[in-house]
Automatic annotation (TrEMBL):
This is Protein kinase domain-containing protein. InterPro entries: Kinase-like_dom_sf. It comes from the Eukaryota.
Amino acid sequence: MADLRSPSEPRVFPSSGWDAIDPSLKFEEESIPNYKPKAFYPVHIGEVFNHLYQVVGKLGHGSSATVWLCRDLL
């Protein structure tokens, strides 16, 4: 059966009205002993991947991956 929904438009997330984290401070995952910044893609809230998924927030992280919550745009 075909999906009859029309694609959703990406949401626009506010760029103000909240506290920004000082970029000189390390996030939790950056303090893991074997952390290598170039091994991870720098994901941004609101970013859209392959016109299909929009990043909503970070769910968690471990020693080898970070898990992101994304909204399906289809």
